[in-house]
Amino acid sequence: MLLAGLLVACGAQEPADAQASAITPLQVFAAASLKESMDAAAAAYHASTGQPVQVTYAGSPALARQIEQRAPADIFVSADGDWMDWLDQRGLVDAASRRDLLGNQLVLVAPAAGTAAPLALGPDTDLLPLLGEDGRLALALTASVPAGKYARAAFESLGLWPALEPRVAEAENVRAALLLVARGETPLGVVYASDAQAEPRVKVLATFPEGSHPDIVYPAARVRASTHPRAQDFLGWMAGDEADAIFRRHGLLPR
């Protein structure tokens, strides 16, 4: 009778443990510019599989450094290859799982309620009149955050950076830069096209010319320390048709 009782107890414990494992949220660290699209993707994956997905958003460098400090992440989606490479060099992501997931475009935005009109960006473009006497150009951190690095590269390639650099207001990530423009605190900013689509308080004045900056690529990979059984499955799902439609709806370019 004692043995039977132990077997029953063990049998009851195993399904409970399996059930607890099945509902452990998948932890995804994703670039701030993916907020709306990844929220929608996480909800769709949960609805399809029953697996909850919890997404943490910030600038790619901040997320990479958190992963280096062993933050509990299963998947990392960066806004450029540099920060994924940085983790890979430290053995912190599974290189075999890495894939280039998405692309984006870089745009110049202004407050939607303002009078600034669409323009063409080129070597002869003068943005200083749009900034006014004291206005600033909102960018993500140009030394480390992908959106800021892309923006600086674009302005440098067009020959506009020397005039604009003293007027830059740097923000910790691209969504913070977007907010400065949306609130009317800066007359201009540079963000991704998907950011501008998500914020009705800004309007797009111009898209940066193709070739003026490196290709915008969002790589995704499994964090090496992850033991979550659904991590690889979610990576594959994000490259499938259902996720493809979600990302396109939010202004991103599946690769």
TrEMBL record:
One short Pfam name that applies is SBP_bac_11
Write out the entry's keywords from A to Z. Metal-binding, Signal
InterPro entries, alphabetized = ModA (IPR005950), ModA/WtpA (IPR050682)
What family classification does the UniProt entry report for this protein? Belongs to the bacterial solute-binding protein ModA family.
> Which NCBIfam families would you find in this protein's record?
modA
List the protein's name: Molybdate ABC transporter substrate-binding protein
